[in-house]
Amino acid sequence: MTPGFTIGPRVQNALVVGSALLAIAGAPWALNNAVLLFAFKPLTTALILLRAWPRGSAAPAVRGAVLTGLVLSLLGDIALLWPQQGFLPGLVAFLLAHIAYVVAFTREHRFLAQPVAVTVYALVAGAVLALLWPSVPAGLRLPVVCYVLALTAMSAQTAVVGLAGRDDERSRGRLLMVGGALFMTSDALLATNKFALALPAANLWILGAYWAAQWCIASWLRSAHIPLNNPA
Fold first, then answer.
1. What is the mean pLDDT of residues 43-49?
2. What is the three-class DSSP state of 111?
3. Could you tell me the residue range of the domain that residue 202 belongs to?
4. Mean pLDDT of the chain, nearest integer
5. Quick check: is 228 in a domain?
6. Residue 12 lies in a domain
7. Is residue 3 part of a domain?
8. Considering the entire predicted model, what is its pTM?
9. Which of 10, 49, 215, 224 is least surrounded, with the fewest CB atoms within 10 Å of its CB?
10. Residue 14's pLDDT is what?
11. What's the first-to-final CA gap in the chain, in angstroms?
């Protein structure tokens, strides 16, 4: 595939939503069908990657970092299909994905340039970590802390982009900011469900917020069909 390969946005969105619903339907509380989860969970992220693929060609370094983050996320999704054995590899894959996203977002604006946004995300992440800390196994505490730091930096940087963007970038920046908030929400729910309290219909909220976040990040890349002086 090349950056010129495209599928219409309506078809892309319909495919992502349909695949996501099938993956979520495979959960034990729904159809309890592991085949659906194993087939459509990676496929949904791959479809979001497909959405990102033709975008961002005017900024190849940004595009490359976002695509790297999505590929790492796909690897993390595959690892987490095995919640016990795959948790640590999945955690590492997503940690690296967040670093890739930070690289992409800092190409637009200086790292953590909005102190208020950084403070808010740090307080939220710290509060969630403090609440769950007693339930985190000792062997996972260091990887979890490293992951939370990467997630917080990524989410805060989306707010930097969203709040500091020029007029022609504002709609894209706000979309990205929503993505950062959704990613933080998804991971907070996932950690709560894993370490503290089994949530009702957990996959619905965790995966729904997660794929919405990834869609926002992919959509932040400027469409090849929109001039540089207009928002994507």
1. 98
2. coil
3. 59-220
4. 91
5. no
6. no
7. no
8. 0.91
9. 10
10. 95
11. 22
